[in-house]
Amino acid sequence: MTDRSSYSVFAERMLHNDSKWIPEILKSMITEEQANLLISLPGTAAEMSVKFRKDIEEIENDLHDMFRKGLTFKKTRDGVTKWNPPLHIAQFHDATIVWPEATEKFYELWRTYMEEEWPQVAPVFTQFLPRPFTRVIPVNQSLEMEKSQILAPDSVREMIEKADRLAITKCTCRTTMKKCNAPIDVCLQVNRGADYSIERGTGREVSREEALEIMKRSQEGGLVHVTINKAGIGHFICNCCGCCCQSFTLLISDGVELCDPSRFRPHVKEDLCTACGECQDRCWFNAIELSDNGIIIIEEKCMGCGQCAIGCAEEAVVMTEVREPGFIPS
What's the average model confidence in pLDDT over 124-152? Predict the structure, then answer.
């Protein structure tokens, strides 16, 4: 295979047949021989050794190098390790961004891709998923506990307290996009996600107490909790802004459904609301309007994150349950 074809085949598998930037991103990370190996996966090191007629140690070195860079993923069963490439563009993005030796050129390439090509492919990407891959979790202190059924998947605190292992990594979106000054080291990896990031050297193990403190600082700073869209404890809890996030930016601008809302929505206590506008300022999703009688929640835009509630000094906004527990995919 030529230098161009191996990188282009990878781009095609990321649903980008005509991408200019994905091949360039890959070229900035690995050699032509490694790219040929990558597009030949899945397989074991022994299988790749036979296919490429190379010493198995050389193959293993390349597989581990790409693992550290976020390009290969391994699964061991009965003592045999099988290696896989990224499943899709989102996994390719999220895993590679936190590569420890990433250069500024590498980040610039990703930034250009996100600005020029991602907006075109994102709507196509959503068509392959029955539901969005991620879901908003409301901030805990905003929930009206006595009127709602608070499940573990709805609660950042419960997810953290039930986790076996936790680690912190950089926010992939803010690392590349750099459109705000929100903190970077706030992406929480949970259980297998933590194991993976620690093994790669991209995450730092943290205690439950530190994880809870990071979540508290993030929500107070206006960031939105996001996790994998399924019941139970997922592999991550991101803390997202509306200006850098690969999902939120297109959801806000074009309504691309890359993230599900939480099961909750703001309820306004009109007798307490002073229409100060703080909740509107904190809402990334343009879901709040001011009126002479207080505020109006635009339900179709609201993601149920609770930023409006925690920012209300009058405690006039609380989050109430509006979707059944079954809304969260099993």
Answer: 73
Scored b (16 or more CB within 10 A) or e, 156-171 reads bbebbeebeebbbbbb
Residue spans of the domains in the chain: they are 3-127, 134-327
Distance CA 287, CA 298 (A): 5
**pLDDT > 90: what percent of the chain?**
82
Q: Which distant-in-sequence residues (6+ apart) come within 8 Å of 48 by Cβ?
A: 37, 40, 41, 54, 59, 63, 83
Q: Are strands 187-190 and 166-169 parallel, antiparallel or unpaired?
A: antiparallel
List strands edge to edge, sheet with 236-240: 204-205, 166-169, 187-190, 236-240, 224-228, 134-137, 259-260
Instruction: With beta carbons less than 8 A apart as the criterion, state whether 17 and 117 touch.
Output: no
Q: Which of 181, 252, 182, 245 is nearest to 214 (CA)?
A: 182
Q: How far apart, in Å, are the Cα atoms of 252 and each of 122, 194, 195, 211?
A: 13, 30, 33, 28
Using an 8 Å Cβ cutoff, are 66 and 30 in contact? Answer: yes
The CA-based dihedral angle spanning residues 255, 259, 265, 270, taken in that order and rounded to the nearest 10 degrees: -40
**β partners of residue 281:** none
**pLDDT band (50, 70, 90) for residue 3:** very low
Q: 101: alpha, beta or left, given left = phi > 0 and alpha = psi -120 to 50?
A: alpha
Give the DSSP letter string of 16-62.
-TT-SHHHHHHHTTS-HHHHHHHTT-SEEHHHHHHHHT--HHHHHHH
Distances (CA, A) of 186 to 4, 83, 104: 37, 29, 21
Q: Domain 134-327: which CATH class?
A: alpha beta
The CATH code that applies to domain 3-127 is 1.10.10.10
Is residue 125 over pLDDT 90?
no
